[in-house]
Each structure stands twice: as structure tokens, then as C-alpha cells.
């Protein structure tokens, strides 16, 4: 059974950030999620339709597609692609990991009337950052494949990088289908 969490009521909110926009109105909200044990990603809430828990058995595999595409599933009567975000970004694919879990969280994004589920192990918090504080990614920082899917990065209060996912580029990766 798919559980929908459109209101983010069960997500823990990082108390150091307020969800309201700043008085200047220049801050944006992002959903934080782990990309691996050391690096976290951010997804703009403006691109997010919801977050659902997905059992891998709910995903219908589709033959002869890119390896990062796990398949399609039914969400509210709509067939949506579920893609392994780590696999797309060049990390170990979901099904090849040791101690693979049989479920994950799909961040549902919509770009130009196309909804796609970006499967990750978990989602963390909603955080607020000023887009003007976003830092550019240099070619020497990351593999080119990973860097092409990012808009830049922020640094959190502990000094850790938070990679900002470019949902438009992620959706473009599906265009050959």
C-alpha cells in the first residue's frame, strides 16, 4: 500500500530555520535527503508534489530502459516513472546495494506536466536557504555526470555541503522515452 504524505506532517522540521519566508522574501524552502552516508541533497519544494513510501514490489519493471529507471507505478490513477536517484547520479544502483531495503521514499516532482518519483532511502527535513548564497560547483569537485544534475550547493550550519538538485535536468534524462 502506498502512503501519501502531501502535507509533510510527519517530517521533522529543522528548528534553526523558520518555514516562513524572510522579511526580504528571498529565501526558498528545500527538502533535504541523504545521497550517501556523507553527502545530502536538496530538492526545491516548489517542484515537489508529494513524498510517498514505495515498496519495491509496487514498481512494475519496464524492459530495455536505462538502468536507473526502476519502472512505473500507479499513483492516484496516474502511471509515473520511478527512478533510482543515486543510480542516475552515478552512485551504486538501488538493487545492487548491500542490505538493500525493500522500500524507500519517492519524492514526486513535476516538471512540464510530467510527474516522476525520485527514489531515495529516506527524506529528512525541510530547510530554508537564500538562493543568492548558493555556491557554484567546479569541474574538479565532482564527477561530470553528477555535476550535470546539480544547480550548485549550500553549506549547512555544520559546514557540510548540501547538493541542490536540478529537477528540470533530471526530467530531461527521461526525454528519450
UniProtKB/TrEMBL annotation:
This is Chemotaxis protein CheW. PANTHER family: CHEMOTAXIS PROTEIN CHEW, CHEMOTAXIS SENSOR HISTIDINE KINASE-RELATED. PROSITE patterns: CHEW. Residues 27-176 form the CheW-like domain. GO terms for biological process: chemotaxis; signal transduction. Pfam families: CheW. It comes from the Bacteria. The lineage of its organism: Bacteria, Bacillati, Cyanobacteriota, Cyanophyceae, Nostocales. GO terms for cellular component: cytosol.
Amino acid at each position: 500500500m502506498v502512503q501519501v504524505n502531501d502535507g509533510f506532517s510527519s517530517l521533522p522540521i529543522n528548528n534553526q530555520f523558520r518555514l516562513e519566508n524572510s522579511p526580504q522574501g528571498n529565501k526558498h524552502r528545500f527538502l533535504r535527503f541523504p545521497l550517501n552516508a556523507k553527502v545530502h541533497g536538496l530538492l526545491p519544494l516548489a517542484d515537489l508534489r508529494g513524498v510517498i513510501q514505495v515498496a519495491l514490489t509496487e514498481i512494475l519493471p519496464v524492459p530495455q530502459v536505462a538502468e536507473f529507471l526502476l519502472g512505473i507505478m500507479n499513483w492516484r490513477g496516474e502511471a509515473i516513472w520511478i527512478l533510482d536517484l543515486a543510480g542516475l547520479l552515478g552512485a551504486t544502483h538501488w538493487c545492487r546495494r548491500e542490505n538493500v531495503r525493500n522500500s524507500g521514499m519517492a519524492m514526486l516532482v513535476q516538471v512540464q506536466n510530467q510527474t516522476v518519483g525520485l527514489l531515495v532511502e529516506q527524506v529528512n527535513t525541510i530547510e530554508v536557504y537564500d538562493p543568492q548564497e548558493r555556491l557554484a560547483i567546479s569541474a574538479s569537485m565532482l564527477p561530470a555526470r553528477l555535476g550535470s544534475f546539480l544547480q550548485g550547493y549550500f553549506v549547512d550550519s555544520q559546514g557540510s555541503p548540501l547538493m541542490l538538485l536540478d529537477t528540470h535536468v533530471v526530467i530531461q534524462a527521461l526525454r528519450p522515452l
